[in-house]
């Protein structure tokens, strides 16, 4: 489970809401949540602000070190 997945689950936030707020597809958010892809830096910053968590909290995972940015 990724940190993003944990945050969304804990707060009861739906992926579609994130997608709409960031202007990305729900599929993109799903890939981020599952750890299949990592968001581009601009989306990491927007996610950080939207979820009111630090960037470090979002990216401090092994999954982010080896995956392609999308």
TrEMBL record:
Record keywords, A-Z: DNA-binding
CDD domains referenced in this protein's UniProt entry, alphabetically: HTH_XRE
Domain HTH cro/C1-type: 4-58
Official protein name in the record: HTH cro/C1-type domain-containing protein
Molecular function GO terms recorded: DNA binding
UniProt keyword annotation of Zinc present: no
Species this protein is from: marine sediment metagenome
